[in-house]
Amino acid sequence: MPRTRRSKKIKNTSSGNSFHDRDALLGLFKQMYLIRQFEITCGEQYSQGNIRGFLHLYIGQEATGVGVLSQLSKDDYVITHYRDHGHALARGLDVNRSMAELFGKSTGLSKGKGGSMHLFDVSKKFMGGHAIVAGQLPVAAGLSLAQKYKNEEGITVCFFGDGATNQGVYHETLNLAAVWQLPILFVLENNGYGMGSSIERVRAGGTDFYPGVSTYGIDTAEVDGMDVLAVREATRAAIDKIRSNSSPYFIECKTFRFVGHSYADGQKYRDNDEIKSWRNKDPVETFPKYLINQNMSTDQEISDIKSKIDKQIDQAVKFAENSPNPPMSELYKDIYRD
User: Fold this and answer.
1) Rounded distance, CA 65 to CA 159, Å?
2) Distance, CA of 312 to CA of 37 (rounded, Å)
3) Sheet holding 156-161, edge to edge
4) What angle do CA 23, 19, 34 make, to 5 degrees?
5) Whole-angstrom Cα distance, residue 310 to residue 41?
6) Which of 84, 192, 215, 269 is deepest in the core (most CB within 10 A)?
């Protein structure tokens, strides 16, 4: 019988004192702003025809990815879904090569063959975005099982959206993670919608997922995914428990995407008032104000940070534009491992 685990809610922390220094907090803002500007630029480049195929933007959800990934070590694996740009950048993947991959250029992270949904960098233990809904979950379990089998120090972090919870492999993976006591952190980015369908339309039992996960004997927590400090706090507590017990943990982050499911989505299924209410919690807007109010930064410093990152993004676009297309001779390479 699986053990009954206690669920808990992590309170908002942005109104209180931080547990890290000023530089660490500024680092969180830099990461979130970098992701936001990268994604905005991707949308612009998509409209101009420089990025093709599918494009799923992370705009609005930055606090979740940054808060979680800020707590990982170099020994930890990260695997995620098709909305992967934010996770890739927060993990420290090269900005230029990330943009080049989206442009389909040979200098890209996957040599221009993966595109938006398949950013990979094994050197960072970033095991990619995955286009199939919930497809990354069993792979994450495999990574974590390998870590445990080899007595490695790291853990595995697996991101997925609420749409993935309707797939059978979601439950199968949770069950095996509990049975095998895998050192894995499941991060549900609950943005309220699976493509164009709200949770209420497709799920019985309400909009909270974490209580049901407890039935597998997995510790769980719910957190405000728009509050980077709350996410960081929840992640730190979860990872401490995973490392000490070699057991799985599940965090549900309540968040919201400010854009459509993909760039082609007109969002006719969402109410403008709903979008506006979530916009008031925009982490890229609220967090720098918090830093200034706590005398940890100034308007000028925030402005300087933004200017520097804007230039970094501009340089990434130039790098992608000037990079060569993959030659036809590359077509059948990298299909099998050498």
Assistant:
1) 9
2) 10
3) 7-10, 219-224, 249-254, 184-190, 156-161, 77-81, 126-130
4) 40
5) 10
6) 84
> What sign does the CA torsion over 144, 188, 67, 7 have?
negative
Q: Are 188 and 137 in contact (CB under 8 A)?
A: no
Q: What is the rounded distance in angstroms from the CA atom of residue 158 to the CA atom of residue 139? A: 9
State the pTM of this model.
0.90
Model confidence pLDDT, tens digit, residues 4-30? 455 555 444 444 444 568 999 999 999
Cβ-based neighbours of 330, under 8 Å, separated by 6 or more: 106, 111, 113
pLDDT tens track for 33-75: 999 999 999 999 999 999 999 999 999 999 999 999 999 999 9
- Which of these, 187, 171, 188, 177, lies nearest to 148 by C-alpha position? 177
Domain ranges of the chain: 7-319
Q: What is the pLDDT of residues 199-237, one digit of tens each?
A: 655 666 666 668 789 999 999 999 999 999 999 999 999
Round to whole Å and give the CA distance between 181 and 71: 21
Residues 86, 91: Cα–Cα separation, whole Å: 8
Beta strands in 97-137 (DSSP E): 126-130
Which residues in the chain belong to E strands, given as ranges? 7-10, 77-81, 126-130, 156-161, 184-190, 193-194, 197-198, 219-224, 249-254
Q: Please tell me the distance from the alpha carbon of residue 116 to that of residue 100, in angstroms, as a whole number.
A: 10
- DSSP letter at 16 equals S
Q: 153-194: per-residue pLDDT in tens? A: 999 999 999 889 888 999 999 999 999 999 999 999 998 766
